[in-house]
From TrEMBL, chain A:
Source organism (scientific name): Marinobacter profundi
NCBIfam families associated with the record: urea_trans_UrtB
InterPro entries: ABC_transp_permease, ABC_UrtB_bac, ARM-like, BCAA_transport_permease
Main location: membrane
Subcellular localization(s) per the UniProt record: Cell inner membrane
Protein name: Urea ABC transporter permease subunit UrtB
TrEMBL record, chain B:
UniProt keyword annotation of Glycoprotein present: no
Record-linked InterPro entries: ABC_transp_permease (IPR001851), ABC_transptr_urea_perm_UrtC (IPR017778), LivM-like (IPR043428)
CDD domains: TM_PBP1_LivM_like
Regions crossing the membrane: 19-38, 44-63, 70-92, 132-156, 163-181, 211-232, 260-279, 299-323, 335-359
Organism: Marinobacter profundi
Keyword list, A-Z: Cell membrane, Membrane, Transmembrane, Transmembrane helix
Entry protein name: Urea ABC transporter permease subunit UrtC
Subcellular location: Cell inner membrane
Length: 534, 376
């Protein structure tokens, strides 16, 4: 009797399978319901078939169902027979949701629910199915991630299934990942040919498999694996160098951004502005303010805060110039002290008016994420944007200083103030504009910084010493020197970091600059001619 | 430059120095009297807390005198004198740490608590000898002195002066701050050195020791003042003022500008170290915060407020600003940075000669006032 009954159920299940395979990838609601119902009432053998059927259906909800089934959360309501997923099983009443629609059905006493039975054999099968379920979806990016996740986890039955999937796969990247995953398995089985497939792979699992093979019994495979490992190691070193360079350049471009405004006020005008860091802070807070004004549109706010940050910082700079600096002309040490006082006031102002805590600035979608060059190297987008932004700002400043009337007048006033004035240049106006320009660039640096560090009252303080170092290292009054000094200091810092640690690397760089200044007191590119005498 | 005892005698014969020493000793005697003679409840009684606070101010005053020596008389704006102060403080702190012995939390007779905590097995070599007072006190002078010697030798030989020097002194103290924050350095990292028990056998908690430290600080300030006064009135001092006002000309006249600068800079660093060493037992802690560039630049504003190139102005400035700081941070902590920032601006713009300048204008016109362009 019982044999007959299970036979009947088996035919029922097979029938379902047949129906749904005819219907194609997407199971209809009705079939899905019947499959799930079947799962609830079926024997172990039938469940195994139905589970495979669900996984192969290509339905987006299949993963959800299978996961719930495996976790013992797929249940049937005793009274109605409806299949539900238990979303919370704490306490007496469980929260449930309809398995088909995902719609929440509120809470129900656990006595009214009957769990769909599952055992460890079935769980194993479901886990295998789940590992390949993402390989059948339409989105190639999902398939690629799934294929990469399979590396090193392939076993005999899975390998069979993967071979089948590989035949249908048309995306080259996914193919490659699948081939690597299979090769790792084959290498484990002692297949020497698999070494060739893995030779160029940067995947850590592939490397582990090769390392295992290199220690293996077969001398031929071991030799081939050792060679492959060596070439991978070389590739990795190159990639690591590229990554360090990238981080170095991005840190360097932050330094350039921070220092370039200073290079104008300090280098060109000879004014020591210790409040420069706080002008950067104002730029960063402008970005934050913009995002508060335009909630939900972080991208637009960020773009708008580029001109806004420039203006805010430039206005603040001009106020500082008019109220303090102009009274201290020719007294650089006093200027230093006075502007330091201004920086303290600005910091405390932000602490009092806004908050002593850091504010969070949202990074727009198009700036977050990263570009993956290969498995060992990926470039974060926000840093890439900062590098680009720094170069654009630098180019813009170069243009202003070299090609515009203002630039010409600035250079004239710098070289010989009295002579420039007698030629009809309004030196005071040039001072204001130059200082405004340098301050505005500090504001731009702040906008960029808001995307990569915390925006807080101490933001400027942490960059001011570094910025001065960059200007002094590059040679005062030389924008190219500032660019080169910033980029090289950033790169040196990043290169030292792996073996010295972040703090020690910074100390080494500072000591290096202190020693460098002894050797070349006027920086990498000293000013020549009359301007140098000042 | 012949060195004789003459240069120390000369300032003692000056009326201004006598006046300064008189006021200083009278004030110290008054504080001591009010502390010892009057009962606790009396309105005029000076508590042990106040005595220690005044002792702290006197340390700052000595530090300010050291900065005034290089800034006022040599034209070198050091934004890193906090580093010398802190090094002296750390030397003293190491001695006090070793005096704790096995009375620490972990009871290790050999290692300070923080080393036990970090699982260090033995005392690092640079901690050797600090259990002996004479060695530690020698290091109070030598550690900042050596740093100043090496740093100054490199800087002055390459003729790094003016703003450049200011910025690299700031970088120096910043680098040291980062270094001392590291646990691996063996100076207690973030927390620094603290939990001191006694000095030279006297408990640091007793009122008598506190009073003793206050008096010792006052005497150190007096000696430091006389030494500085002696230097600036000597021939060496004349040359250093010449370096300040026209460095190139002094060099062309045949003076070794770099040596003069180096000598004065090292003396100043040692004075700062002594100030730090006296500061630590009174405050009870030394941590890397003393290396912060903000502290170093604060010292400069004390001197600027008091008046550069007067020495006594530095003392007045240090006392005034620190008293104001104590009051402000107690009453409305938020306003302190506004006040300090405003002070920076107001003093440099409206009061370039500081309070001493106001006093001098009242009396006779100064014989040798630093020119406005001195610093340029």
């Amino acid at each position: 009797m019982s044999i007959l009954r299970s036979l009947a159920r088996l035919t029922f299940a097979l029938h379902l399978v047949l129906l749904s395979s005819l219907a194609g990838a997407q199971v209809s609601e009705q079939q899905a319901a019947r499959l799930l119902q079947g799962l609830a009432g079926a024997s172990q053998a039938e469940k195994s078939i139905i589970v495979r059927e669900l996984a192969g259906s290509g339905d987006e909800r299949a993963r959800n169902w299978l996961e719930a089934f495996s976790a013992n959360k797929l249940s049937r309501i005793k009274t109605t027979g409806q299949i539900v997923i238990v979303t919370s099983n704490r306490g007496r009443n469980w929260a449930i949701a309809d398995a088909l629609t995902g719609e929440s059905l509120g809470e129900m006493s656990r006595r009214e629910l009957e769990a769909v039975q599952v055992n460890n054999t079935l769980r194993g099968e479901v886990d295998d199915l789940l590992s390949v379920i993402d390989l059948t979806v339409a989105n190639p990016q999902v398939r690629l991630t799934a294929a990469r996740a399979l590396m090193g986890t392939v076993n005999a039955p899975l390998a069979e299934r993967l071979n089948g999937l590989l035949a249908d796969e048309d995306n080259p990247a996914v193919r490659e990942a699948l081939e690597s995953a299979l090769a790792i398995y084959r290498l484990g089985q002692g297949d020497g040919a698999a070494v060739a497939v893995l030779a160029g792979s940067l995947n850590p699992q592939a490397r582990a498999a090769l390392a295992g093979a290199a220690r293996g019994d077969d001398p031929q495979i071991a030799a081939a694996a050792t060679r492959a490992l060596a070439s991978i190691e070389q590739k990795l070193t190159l990639n690591r160098a590229a990554e360090t360079l990238y981080f170095g350049l991005s840190l360097g471009s932050v330094l350039v951004l921070a220092a370039i405004g200073l290079a104008i006020t300090f280098g060109v005008m000879g004014v020591i502005n210790m409040a420069h860091g706080e002008l950067m802070m104002l730029g960063a807070y402008t970005t934050w303010g913009m995002q508060q004004l335009l909630p939900g549109q972080p991208g637009l706010a960020l773009i708008l805060s580029i001109p806004a940050g420039f203006l805010v910082a430039a206005m603040a700079g001009i106020v500082i110039e008019r109220s303090v600096i102009q009274h201290l002309k020719g007294r650089p040490l006093e200027t230093l002290l006075a502007t330091f006082g201004v920086s303290l006031i600005l910091q405390q102002l932000v602490r009092t008016l806004i908050s002593p805590l850091n504010r969070s600035v949202v990074t727009p979608d198009w700036m977050s994420g990263s570009i993956m060059i290969n498995e060992a190297l990926s470039l974060t987008l926000n840093r890439l944007y900062v590098i680009g932004f720094a170069l654009v700002v630098f180019a813009g400043l170069m243009l202003i200083m070299r090609k515009t009337r203002l630039g010409l007048e600035v250079r004239a006033v710098t070289q010989n103030r009295a002579m420039a004035r007698s030629m009809g240049i309004r030196a005071t106006r040039v001072d204001i504009l130059t200082f405004g320009l340098g301050s505005g660039v500090a504001g731009l640096a702040g906008v960029a910084l808001s995307q990569i560090t915390n925006v807080g009252p101490n933001l400027g303080q942490s960059y001011i010493i570094d910025s001065f170092m960059v200007v002094v290292f590059g040679g005062v009054g030389n924008l190219w020197g500032t660019l080169l000094a910033g980029l090289s200091l950033g790169t040196i810092n990043q290169m030292l970091e792996p073996w010295a640690g972040a703090v020690l690397a910074k100390i080494i760089v500072l000591v290096f600059i202190i020693l460098f200044i002894q050797k070349r007191p006027r920086g990498l590119f000293p000013q020549k001619g009359r301007a140098a005498e000042g | 430059m012949p060195v004789s005892s003459q240069w120390l005698k000369r300032p003692l014969l000056e009326r201004s120095t006598q006046l300064f020493l008189g006021v200083l000793f009278a004030a110290m005697a008054l504080v001591t009297l009010l502390h010892v003679a009057l009962p606790q409840g009396s309105a005029l009684h000076v508590s042990a807390y106040t005595v220690t606070l005044l002792g702290k101010y006197l340390c700052y005053a000595l530090l300010a005198v050291a900065v005034d020596l290089v800034w006022g008389y040599l034209g070198i704006l050091s934004l890193g004198h906090g580093a010398f102060f802190a090094l002296g403080g750390y030397a003293m702190g190491m001695y006090l740490m070793r005096q704790i012995g096995d009375r620490g939390v972990y009871g290790n007779p050999e290692l300070p608590d923080f080393m036990v905590f970090l699982n260090w097995q033995e005392l690092p070599w640079y901690w050797q000898g600090f259990d002996m007072a004479w060695f530690a006190f020698l290091m109070v002078l030598l550690a900042p002195g050596l740093l100043a010697l090496v740093f100054g030798f490199l800087a002055f030989r390459s003729r790094v002066t003016g703003v450049y020097l200011s910025i690299i002194t700031q970088a120096l103290t910043f680098a040291l701050m980062l270094a001392f924050f590291r646990n691996e350095m063996g100076f207690g990292g973030n927390n620094g050195l603290t939990d001191f028990k006694d000095i030279l056998g006297f408990s640091l908690r007793s009122d008598a020791t506190r009073l003793g430290l206050f008096i010792a600080t006052g005497i150190a300030l007096a000696i430091g003042y006389v030494i500085c006064r002696g230097i600036v009135t000597s021939k060496l001092g004349r040359v250093s003022i010449a370096c300040r006002d026209a460095e190139a000309r002094t060099r062309f006249l045949g003076y070794r500008v770099d040596r003069v600068q180096l000598f004065v800079f090292v003396v100043s660093a040692m004075l700062a170290g002594v100030a730090g060493a006296l500061y630590v037992p009174q405050v009870g802690i030394i941590n890397p915060g003393e290396f912060s560039p903000l502290f170093s630049i604060e010292i400069v504003v004390w001197v600027a407020l008091g008046g550069r190139a007067t020495l006594y102005g530095a003392v007045i400035g240090a006392l005034l600003v620190n008293y104001a700081k104590t009051v402000f941070t107690g009453v409305m902590p938020d306003a302190w940075l506004f006040a300090l920032g405003g002070l920076f601006v107001l003093v440099t713009v409206f009061l370039p000669k500081g309070i001493a300048g106001l006093l001098q204008r009242r009396s006779a016109p100064p014989v040798s006032s630093p020119s406005q362009e001195a610093a340029a």
